[in-house]
Amino acid sequence: MSLLSRIAASAVLYLALAPPVRAAPPEMTFEKYRLQNGLDVILHVDHAVPLVHVEIWYKVGSKDEAPGKTGFAHLFEHMMFQGTKQIPEDAYFKYLGQAGASARNGSTTTDRTNYFETLPSSELELALWLESSRMGFLLEPRPASAPSRPSERPTESS
Fold this sequence. Notes:
This protein is of the alpha+beta class. It has helices at about 5-15, 70-80, 90-100, 125-135, and strands spanning about 30-35, 40-45, 50-60, 105-110, 115-120.
């Protein structure tokens, strides 16, 4: 075996037997508090990019379904995108798209259902309004059509 082959074999052996290098997890500072209405808030502020991510978790999932009757948690996840008293059918994605959202969706697991959107930080009010409307006005009659722009949305008194 040539000297070069022995050096290469030694390097491969060293890398294979060396303990893995583990980076320390990044430290993420956040505030956690409970609002008067019972909602838990976890807030992390990072001004590195002009984005905001809003994520709402409901503590309900497929574990809450009756035996033999499955799929309801996922069905309700989809129904909750279909409008509220303040938001017409299919307007969630329209408003978020107009606002420049890069991500918007929801998901269901055994123990939770969540909804999220990532959009320019200047649109935080829109994201909070959409989520609060979903939370507070889901079962009430919806308007027939969506305002063409989210800025024309109803106020709290509507």
